Structure formats: structure tokens, C-alpha cells
């Protein structure tokens, strides 16, 4: 055997297709494991940092609440867990994911519903202003209850409009009466007052008897005349 043949026979054969895929899968697994370890290390460092900030917050007697910088979902989850373990209260605020942040409160200074609503609307919380609004609201409610107990308000004018405008009312009434009389004449209507009989009973009976005698006389005809011879 020549020298070249002996060298070639001593070398390993080139890897096949299956060997290349297996090596690529091993490299990807190694990279993924490395990334997972890196992420795990970053989470542990972040948690350690949050534990220190929360501990400093607890020890600071001058602070009742603390607002943290905007965080992603994973960081917020870690901070919420640290706060719960420490015995504090935490809330997330912010509409957009990249702008959401966490506020931590000490148990004895837990926020009211009005304070939480202010933070949700992106406003600063002013206790004095909130107390003033609450006082005005209670005052308005009390006044409304008092007005309801008094009943409906009766408005009495200072002067009687009938007395003030009596001359105008009289003219209008006279004008309406004149129109009514004209209408009665036009359509043959007679007011009830004009139909009322003002005669006495005796006068009415005498008139009836006279009409009856006149009717009998007309029925009998003229009396026959007698010729004396």
C-alpha cells in the first residue's frame, strides 16, 4: 500500500446527513438552555433588587406608599409576589402594557376606592381636595333630603294678576259676550235666561183661559142674526 492510501484509511469518514441534523439539534438545545439559565439568573437578580427596595420602603417610616417604574408582565409578577410575602398591598395602573406600573401601600395606609379611581384615571391623589369634595357631596345630599321632606314648593305671586289686569279682563269678557249674542241671532239661538217665564202662575192661567175661549169662539162661528118682522 502506498503512503497516500495509508493516510486516507487512517482518517475518519465524513459525517452523514443524520449526523449533521443531530449535531444541529444539540447546538440548539445548548443555546436554549443557556438562554433559560440567563433568564433565570436575571429574574433572581431582579427579585433580589425588588426585595431590597421593598425592605427599604418598609423601614422608611416617612413613606406610606411607593410608586415603581413601568415594568413588563414578568417583572410585575415578581414584584407582586415580593410585596405579598412582605405583607404589603400592591396595585397595577396604566392602560398601555409598556406604561403599566405598580404602587405599593403599607397595610395601615391602604388606599380608598376614591384614591384608586384617581390613579386609574391617571390623576394625582390629593387627600384634602378629596375630603372637600366628600363634604360638599354630603351637604348637597342633606339639602336634597330636607327639600324632599318639605314637599312641593308653592309659588305665590306678590300681586293678583286678576286685579292688575281687571280692565283688560273686563273688556275681553264683554267682547266675548257680544260675539255670543251675535252668534245666537245668526243661528236662531236664544239664551236660556231669555227662555225663562217671569210671569206669575195666575197671570199664566188667565192667559191660557183667554186663549181657550178665543179658540172656542172661532170653532162655533158667528151667531145667527134674527129678523123681526
UniProtKB/TrEMBL annotation:
Matching Gene3D superfamilies: R3H-like domain
Task: List the GO molecular function terms.
Answer: nucleic acid binding
Question: Which CDD domains does the UniProt entry name for this protein?
Answer: R3H_sperm-antigen
- Which InterPro entries does the protein's record reference? R3H_dom, R3H_dom_sf, R3H_sperm-antigen, SPAG7
Q: Which domain of life is it from?
A: Eukaryota
Q: Can you give the residue ranges of the R3H domain?
A: 44-107
**Where are the residues of the annotated region Disordered?**
1-64, 117-160, 201-229
Q: Where is the composition biased (Basic and acidic residues)?
A: 18-55, 130-149
Q: Which residues form a coiled coil?
A: none
Question: Mind telling me which Pfam families this protein's record contains?
Answer: R3H
N-terminal signal peptide = none
| UniProt protein name | Sperm-associated antigen 7 homolog
Question: In which organism is this protein found?
Answer: Phrynocephalus forsythii
Biological classification of the source: Eukaryota, Metazoa, Chordata, Craniata, Vertebrata
Amino acid at each position: 500500500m502506498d503512503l497516500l492510501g495509508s493516510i486516507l484509511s487512517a482518517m475518519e469518514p465524513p459525517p452523514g446527513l443524520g449526523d449533521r441534523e443531530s449535531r444541529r439539534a444539540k447546538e440548539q438545545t445548548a443555546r436554549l438552555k443557556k438562554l433559560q439559565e440567563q433568564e433565570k439568573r436575571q429574574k433572581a437578580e431582579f427579585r433580589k433588587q425588588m426585595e431590597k427596595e421593598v425592605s427599604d420602603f418598609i423601614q422608611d417610616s416617612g413613606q406610606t406608599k411607593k410608586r415603581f417604574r413601568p415594568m413588563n408582565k414578568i417583572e410585575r409578577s415578581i414584584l407582586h409576589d415580593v410585596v405579598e410575602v412582605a405583607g404589603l398591598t400592591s396595585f397595577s395602573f396604566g392602560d398601555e402594557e409598556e406604561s403599566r406600573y405598580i404602587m405599593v401601600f403599607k397595610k395601615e395606609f391602604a388606599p380608598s376606592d376614591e384614591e384608586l379611581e384617581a390613579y386609574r384615571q391617571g390623576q394625582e391623589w390629593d387627600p384634602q381636595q378629596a375630603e372637600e369634595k366628600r363634604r360638599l357631596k354630603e351637604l348637597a345630599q342633606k339639602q336634597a333630603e330636607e327639600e324632599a321632606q318639605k314637599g312641593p314648593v308653592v309659588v305665590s305671586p306678590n300681586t293678583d294678576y286678576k286685579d292688575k289686569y281687571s280692565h283688560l279682563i273686563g273688556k275681553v269678557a264683554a267682547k266675548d259676550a257680544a260675539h255670543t249674542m251675535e252668534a245666537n241671532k245668526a243661528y236662531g239661538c236664544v239664551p236660556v235666561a231669555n227662555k225663562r217665564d217671569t210671569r206669575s202662575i195666575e197671570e199664566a192661567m188667565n192667559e191660557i183661559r183667554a186663549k181657550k175661549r178665543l179658540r172656542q169662539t172661532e170653532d162655533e162661528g158667528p151667531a145667527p142674526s134674527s129678523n123681526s118682522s
